[in-house]
Amino acid sequence: MRFFDSEEWRLSSAGGMTGEAYLAESGNNKLFIKRNTSPFLAVLSAEGIVPKLLWTRRMSNGDVLTAQKWTKGRVLRPDEMTAKQVADMLKKIHNSEPLLLMMRRIGKKPVSTKQIYEQLMRQAKGRAETPALRAALHFLGEMAETAESANKTVCHSDVNHNNWLLDTESNSLYLVDWDQAIIADPVMDLAMLLYWYVDKDQWENWLLYYGWEMNAALKLRLIWHMIAMTLRFMFWHQEHAEVRKMILFEKDLLWLNDYAARTF
């Protein structure tokens, strides 16, 4: 494939679940190519949240390709997700006015807990109704209004450690794969990170890195979004016939349901 008149570039898969990411190579030159990526990639690049955007081009078939600087680095290990650098990056994202403005310009509307609950109810239809699923949906419905927050920011909504890229030359940290970004309570991102990577007895300390102090209202929002997140991923793995992973999320759901019942 030709990106420049004088160079022929070889494309190979760069991994990822969508199959839309590629490594382009020409001699010693390397680019990260993404097809039909988030339209606010330029803002993410300008804010230093993703590697530098080099160009955007529309192809003859209508696809839009973006090229970013190929970063010499690696994804974060699960044990590195507790670092203050991660909390600082999430705080930067959640406080970014340019990101929020761009999301609004492309038509994104704030998502409420009620909307999240209603979407999960629709997804739950036709599935086997286990006691754990029934208890989780009941809790989400009962507490949706109480867990709602007026503070809405840009949320990545999939802060899995595989989406964090550490540049090993500059020690810069990036959060990539923004295809699922929404405007919602920033607790959505925090809940996912805390539940997956931080020991429960360290939640309060990690939140101090982010700049928040734990209280009863925040704890409810966190647990609410942890349960909603667990259902979302459980449904996804069920739809993709990944039974083993679905069962793991069901076990998470049992613990969260028990914790919610004892706490609230």
Automatic annotation (TrEMBL):
Gene3D superfamilies: 3.90.1200.10. PANTHER family: CELL CYCLE REGULATOR CCRZ, PHOSPHOTRANSFERASE YTMP-RELATED. This is Thiamine kinase-like enzyme. It holds the Pfam family APH. Residues 40-210 form the Aminoglycoside phosphotransferase domain. It comes from Sporolactobacillus spathodeae.
